Amino acid sequence: MEKLWNRHIGTGISRDYSVQNYAQALIQFTHFGPGCDRICRVCQWNVYKVVFFLVSSSYVSTAAIGSYCPVICEVFEKLAQQAAVTPKTSEDLIEMSKYMLYASTTMLNELKYRINEQLAKLSHLLDMSFISAEHKDQNAVTVSWVARIDPIFRGNAVMIEECKFKFEELILKTTESVHKRLDDLEPKLALLDHMVEADHVEEYVSIMRVFLGKLAELKHDIKWINKEEKLFQFALSKYSNNEEFNIIINPFAHLLFTIYLWQLKHKVWMDGQFKRLHYEEVVSSISDFCCKY
Alpha-carbon distance 95 to 49, whole Å? Predict the structure, then answer.
């Protein structure tokens, strides 16, 4: 009985997709006796439908499995491309670290589950139909990604550590630079004590602009340092002397600029063309100067 099945049915299913041949083989296997032609035709038709359904299902399942492989491979390829991108900022580094942690655990486990699921379906199909060489190659490439992605993850981890060290070193260098500039600025504040001559206000304004420019640079660098420290979850650095310098310099700079502007206006009013003076404008300007101090 088993030999008869293998000769008529088993070889047909494994080598040939002719549904009619399957049905004929099954009918022959039933061995109806004489006078049963009608029963044979009914059985032949029903068996034909069953076999057609089975073979069609195998076609659909094979195509479905083949379509899953490129999708899974595309996920791995995109992941490999993202892992190779060097982060340019600390924000990029933190974002990449979080994503790669998720990708190497949760996402990888999900991909492995999908691959194992497809392999189980493939194994089931191999028992009932023929799988093309193309589908076998696609499945082999898909399975190989599980091993290929591991060194990519390790390389990305090394790159992340190198970038983290580089960014931390930059924070340290910038912090040292800020401290040095603050130390250099402190003795120069003694110049403010000598800014007492009204005839030299223009000169004082030029010096004050230099002070304000240095304070602006320090403010920018300190803000950047605190932002980086917050990203890396470091304790925020404080610069009390910088706050003191701003308290001293900014009001004095405002006073000097106001005096300088007053002198310019006064010179126009006193030495300029009298006919071009406008009473309302002069009164408004004097009111503004009075309101400032």
Answer: 56
